[in-house]
Every structure is written in structure tokens, then in C-alpha cells.
Structure prediction request, 222 residues.
Amino acid sequence: MPCQNSRNSSPTSEFRVPPSYPSEYKGTTRWQKPGPMSRNEWAIFHSRYQENAASAAKAEASEDRLSNRMSGGSVASQSTVAREEHIWRLSRPRWERSKYIPPPKEVFTYRPKTNGRPYPCPERGRPTKKPKVPCCFQHEDIEAEFWANLRFPVSRKALEALPSKKTCKLSRPREICWEPPRFEGEIYCRRKMSPRQWRCHLERLQYLSLPNFRVLAEMGPC
Prediction:
């Protein structure tokens, strides 16, 4: 009778199968070698592999030359042709598609005005053409005179425009209200100093309190 386990566990049988032990080691075969290969053995294996690969490549090349001579062609010409064909085959897309031609833009005969704002209409003659500047000037004074006399045409809208109250207010210089002292000898309230400003002020007072060494030198020893 199987044991009753939890809900998510698989049922287990009462009869357990004994674990399978590995078979007895019978020794290495003729293609096996006990233990890892040493450094010299790896070097020998690499040299033999290189010799075998070189001999196989020579045999293939000789077979290709023989077949080309029998067919009447050269090895170089056939290799270049094959390479060009391979490059041409790789350069072509897998799925060729025709060139995309966008459809013509749809023209609407009726374009209603959805908002009350006027459409931006550029003024005639704007933007103005760039002034013709000579490539070089003979003297600095001539260059300065050229740039001083250069004038740009002013648009008609700018001449007829009326500035708003806010624009006029911003164009005026800022007025600083200065109140004269109410009586002679009045001292204004000073602002609070930061710790760094207070240290610098004390250092300045200490320097000013020191005697003038030049005056002491002129006075001489007492």
C-alpha cells in the first residue's frame, strides 16, 4: 500500500529499487589513455594535426589543379570567378522588393478655419538678403567704416506696430528709490554678516591696528 504524502508530492512505493553501482573498471581500451595529457603529449598531438591538415590541403589542391588542367582552365581564374559570384550573391537581398513610390499628396478644396487666430503669413521681402561683404579689406579703418555704415531695411510692420503697455514698462530703465537721511549723522541699519564676512572684518581691523613700519623706520630709534 503506498504511503500517504502531501498534496504536491509524487507517490512513493514501499519497495525501493537498490541504487545502480558503476560496473567494475576493466582498464583502458586502445583508443583511451588514463589521466589527462601532459604538455609534451599535447605538443606532439598538435604537430601531428598540423602535418595531417597540411597533407590533406595539398592533396585537395593537387586534385583541383588536375581537374582544372583536364578541363582547360586555371586555378586563379576559377577562384576569382567563384569569389565574385559569392560576393554578388551575398550583396543581393533575400527578399527583393520594388522601390517605394509615395502616393500623391491629397489636395483639399475646402479648408475651414478652426480657430480665430490668423495664419502666419510672411511679410513680402522678408527675410532680407544677406549684405555683400568684400572678401578682404585694405585697412582696419576701412573695415570699421564699412560695418558702421551698414544698414538693414526695417519692415513696414515694425514701423506701423504699436507697443503694448507691458513692453513700454520693460523698456524704461529701472528706478531705484533712494531716500536721503532724515537728519545729519543718521546711521543706517547694517545687514547681518555671515561668519566668513565677520572673520574677514576682524582680520581687517587687526591689520589696520598695527603700526606703520615705514613711519617707524623714518622716526628712527628713540
